[in-house]
Protein: F-box domain-containing protein
Amino acid sequence: MLNSLEADRAFLADTDAQIFDLEVQIAALEHSVSMLRAARQPAKERLDSYAYPVLTLPNEIIVEIFLHFLPTYPEPPPLVGIYSPTCLTQVCRKWREIAHRTPALWRAIDLTRPFEKPGVEEAVSLSLLWTERSGVYPLSLNLSDSVDPLSVFTSVISRCARWEHLALELDTTRDLDAIQDAFPSLRGLSIHFSFDFPETRVLTLKNLGLLRTVVLDDWQVPHVVLPWSQLTSLTLLFLRSEHCVPILQQTSNLVHCKLRFGIYSMTPQDLELELLCLETLIFASDSYADQNFLHCLVAPRLLRLQLAERFFLLGNSEAFVIESLVSFVSKSGCQLQELNITDAYVTDSENVYREAFPLIPAISVAV
Structure:
């Protein structure tokens, strides 16, 4: 019995000694912790008071930076990824709040890309979300029916009241009815057809009182009816001149024009085409030749002309090209400020053109 009591007393004494040692160590550690906290406090206060320079900018400046981060409107950014406005919302809470409160970031929508990430449903949801975030801003839309199911195409295009710029890629006739709706805010329209129109089918868009810029990228142009007389900018690609001329005869207010004849054709010599407001005329470098087109054209306000020497039938000499241009400028009575010649026959053509047109300030010739 006595031995057991002695053992317990010895155990208690030993544990008391261990507890005391631990308490001494704890006190020392608490002192060390307290010292470290005191040492770190000035650095913490300095960091807490520091603001990253970009976060000190006024919100108005941050908004301008955001807008310059995106493609220039009406070109749309991707729906997701590093070049999307959604990327700006993932940096910090302040940027997210600013981005969500900036309608101009969300007003251009691209639904032409194959939707692997995001999928079609997510892409549609994002496009509708962007439409809401854009507030009352006019909208720009790139849309392709080869990518989007009919339900997607119809649901997006039906929100047409605010569409200001619309670029369509149509592979079938199925969606023609969906786009023959009113577009009261539309200023710019681009359509590319990848199908043959039924012979009797015509695409007529309604209520286009604000439309000023049109790009038609297909030889199906004769099947499209637009308010040509109110246009100030027109691009016609991949078509015959006999399709082009009837349209241009209606464009009394046209200021800028780009043409690409997609197949060899010839404008009748007895035709006269007056474009009294035209200032810029560009023939795509791969446009097929139609030397009679300039022979028929009168453009008294023309300031800038670009065309390829090949535009004048192969086999004609450089002298014939210059003679034709001199005749056109003289007949039009225009004061050209820029003449750009592409696909020149010889490398020293620039000097020849400068001698022929000494009054044109800017002449460039590319072989």
Observations:
- The mean pLDDT is 83.
- Residues 245-367 form one domain.
- The chain is about 35% helix and 20% strand.
